[in-house]
Design goal:
Distance between the termini: 39 Å
CATH topology of the largest domain: TIM Barrel
Number of domains: 3
Strand content: 15-25%
Radius of gyration: 26 Å
Shape: globular
Largest sheet: 8 strands, parallel, barrel
């Protein structure tokens, strides 16, 4: 093991519970041992996932948020004693690995509950809401400290939660914690004075306008959190560890308005002065650890940082708050092992929290410990599989219901949290397989097919593997994308898969293959307007074609916005033209990612023209027509087209010809990789 990482592998304690190392698997929605949205049960898929991680040298595992009351059906967790009998047997398996496990419990989400358009109907229509209540009590799921607009559907108002309901939740925390303790669980974590969830909404002045004992003063705003830990300690004993998921700073300017790194703003949530006081206050109330980061759902990119956020983005603030408490503090948020180890050695934090990296590679701690860093498959913070919660103007969360029920899957690793739906099983009959196209999809299909025992050859028309993802990974904030390309190239090399570079296949019969996988990607769309030939494609820019100072980007989807972001970071003046009424109005694009870019553009006054169509491009610039019908010409030194892609399969689908990825249907890395698996699995 590299000596830099040694501080990560030293023991430490939370209360009287000792962990063998400082690496904490942080909780993620969808990874609850008690199920997620479906009626509570001991979730064997989640259990298998965590047990694998426990066998791979993690110190502390905290499964994701378990609602005290089922979102579907409304049963309280403590009303299912059979589930805890299964949990007890499972804890013996966990402890046999040397790992420890805390169960995270949540009071709920309040205005942050990611309602879909369908669920919002139940909140707008009280009659329908009442009829649906025995199955889905939307009113309870979204109940908040005060009457507040939903984060996901701003025209939907969330009702104030009653004092009776607060007391029921406090009681449920205590009863559930007692059952966890009896089952051998090492501790519980209360979620949360964190991220703008229900309990956090009580603590924040901009979301708590109550006039009873749960609103107004500092003590009243934190009363819910204090009563909860008191109740747990009374039920379980003072020595039973209780962690608190804690946001040091809210990083919030107002409802649906976050503050991006480096921005000057007025905090409406928890500022540092209050956080210093609150951290000590919560410690003195009985909490034994702070599992910390930053943010609210209004500034969601701090708690769930996309690739645009700096690595270790929360470390400075968490290290500061560590000075004000005597209990251990864990820091999460794009943490790197190097930074985590240094901060632990310096006494700035006590543990390093990591979440999504475990989804893509559950053995990454073992690989780090064994000095096999290059074998660690990197998380690229895409949120395509783990948090595909998309929101844009006029649309609440448009996530597929299947994704709602099965969060915390991984775009890059289909095996995560999907039982045995995706398995690498030996092929019944080894075949000769030709893969045409050496992009991510082609490499993944070749990798899985080879692991199954097939003889695979990749045919790539250029001189390198990576395909269009090489261009996509070009901006300097895409360092993890670049690492992913290198990881795939090493995999192909280690598996000794032959690659025919600079080979443009025109005749399948010459390949002499039993099966052919076509992974030739997509082609950029063109605009049928005068002067379109004056514009460059997005790939041209990403591959290094020079541009002038003022650049008009036609298309405000993810590609166009990332290009605008890259241009701004390079000191250029980007201008975005988008036909829809919002930027990144894209299904499945996580709000943590899209809201960062929207907030960044607003904070830095990037010029954006929504509901605008392009009429022509000429030497003077780009002529656009706005929603009012008026035309104007936007001066431009250069113009970039980012209006999407169309499939470009080199060969049509046939009995032994399989078209995958963007060559089949343009999507994202998740659709590309999962489809590659499905094809490779059945050959």
């Amino acid at each position: 093991m590299d000596q830099r990482y040694e501080p990560l592998f030293t023991p430490w304690k939370i209360g009287n519970v000792e962990m063998k190392n400082r690496i904490v698997m942080c909780p993620m929605g969808g990874t609850s041992l008690f199920g997620w949205m479906e009626p509570n049960h001991f979730d064997k898929v989640a259990a298998e996932f965590f047990l694998n991680i426990a066998h791979n040298n993690v110190g502390l595992i905290i499964p994701g948020i378990a609602p005290l009351r089922d979102p579907i059906g409304g049963r309280w967790i403590y009303q299912n004693p059979g589930m805890f009998k299964e949990l007890k047997a499972y804890m013996e398996q966990i402890h046999a690995t040397g790992a420890k496990l805390f169960v995270q419990l949540t009071a709920g989400f309040g205005r942050s509950f990611a309602i879909t358009d369908q669920l919002s109907i139940l909140l707008r229509n009280k009659a329908l809401g009442t009829l649906a209540k025995p199955i889905v009590d939307a009113s309870f799921l979204c109940a908040s400290p005060s009457e507040l607009p939903s984060r996901w559907a701003e025209d939907v108002m969330c009702r104030p939660i009653t004092k009776e309901e607060i007391h029921q939740l406090v009681e449920a925390f205590a009863k559930t914690a007692r059952l966890c303790k009896a089952a051998g669980v090492d501790g519980v974590e209360v979620h949360a004075v964190h991220e703008g969830y229900l309990m956090d909404q009580f603590t924040l002045p901009y979301t708590n306008q109550r006039t009873d004992e749960y609103g107004g003063s500092f003590e009243n705003r934190y009363r819910f959190a204090v009563e909860t830990v008191h109740a747990i300690k009374k039920a379980c004993g003072k020595d039973y560890p209780v962690s608190l998921r804690y946001s040091v700073l809210s990083k919030t300017k107002g409802l649906c308005k976050g503050a991006v790194p480096g921005e000057e703003y007025t905090e409406v949530g928890r500022d540092m002065a209050e956080s210093e006081r609150a951290a000590r206050y919560l410690q003195d109330a009985g909490y034994d650890m702070l599992n910390a980061d930053n943010g609210t759902y209004d500034a969601w990119y701090w708690a769930h940082p996309p690739q645009y956020m700096p690595q270790n983005c929360n470390l400075e603030d968490v290290a500061h708050i560590r000075k004000f408490v005597d209990i251990p503090v864990v820091c999460a948020g794009r943490m790197t092992p190097e930074a985590g180890a240094q901060a632990i050695a310096a006494g700035q934090i006590d543990g390093m929290g990591v979440a999504r990296q475990f989804l893509v590679d559950g053995a990454w701690v073992t690989k780090l410990k064994e000095g096999r860093e290059e074998d660690i498959q990197p998380c690229i913070c895409c949120h395509n599989g783990c948090f595909a919660l998309a929101h844009y103007k006029g649309v609440a969360n448009d996530e597929d219901f299947n994704d709602v029920l099965h969060m915390a899957r991984c775009a890059l690793n289909p095996t995560t949290m999907q039982g045995h739906k995706y398995d690498i099983l030996p092929a019944k009959k080894p075949k000769t397989i030709a893969v045409i196209g050496g992009g991510i999809g082609g490499m993944e299909a070749a990798r899985i097919a080879t692991l199954r025992g097939h003889k695979v050859t990749i045919y790539e028309k250029t001189d390198r593997l990576g395909g269009v993802f090489i261009a996509a990974a070009a901006p300097d904030f895409k360092e993890k994308d670049k690492e992913l390309i290198q990881w795939y190239r090493r995999q192909i090399e280690q598996l000794k898969i032959p690659v025919k570079f600079n080979t443009n296949v025109t005749d399948l019969s010459q390949l002499k293959a039993d099966e052919v996988i076509v992974a030739t990607g997509a082609a950029a769309r063109k605009l049928p307007i005068p002067g379109a030939d004056r514009a460059m494609d997005a790939v041209d820019y990403l591959e290094g074609k020079p541009v002038g100072q003022r650049v008009v980007i036609i298309g405000g989807g993810l590609s166009g916005c990332e290009i605008a972001y890259d241009l701004y970071r390079k000191g250029k003046t980007p201008v975005i033209v988008e036909a829809k009424n919002d930027l990144m109005a894209v299904r499945g694009l996580c709000l943590a990612n899209s809201s960062y870019l929207r907030d960044f553009f607003e904070a830095n006054r990037v010029e954006v023209h929504l509901e605008s169509s392009v009429e022509k491009i000429d030497a003077t610039g780009v002529t656009v027509k706005g929603k009012n019908g008026a035309s104007q010409t936007l001066a431009a030194d250069d113009v970039i087209l980012a209006v999407g892609y169309t499939p470009a399969p080199a060969f049509a689908k046939g009995r032994h010809v399989h078209v995958i990825g963007d060559a089949c249907n343009v999507g994202n890395l998740r659709t590309v990789i999962w489809q590659a698996w499905k094809v490779a699995e059945r050959l």
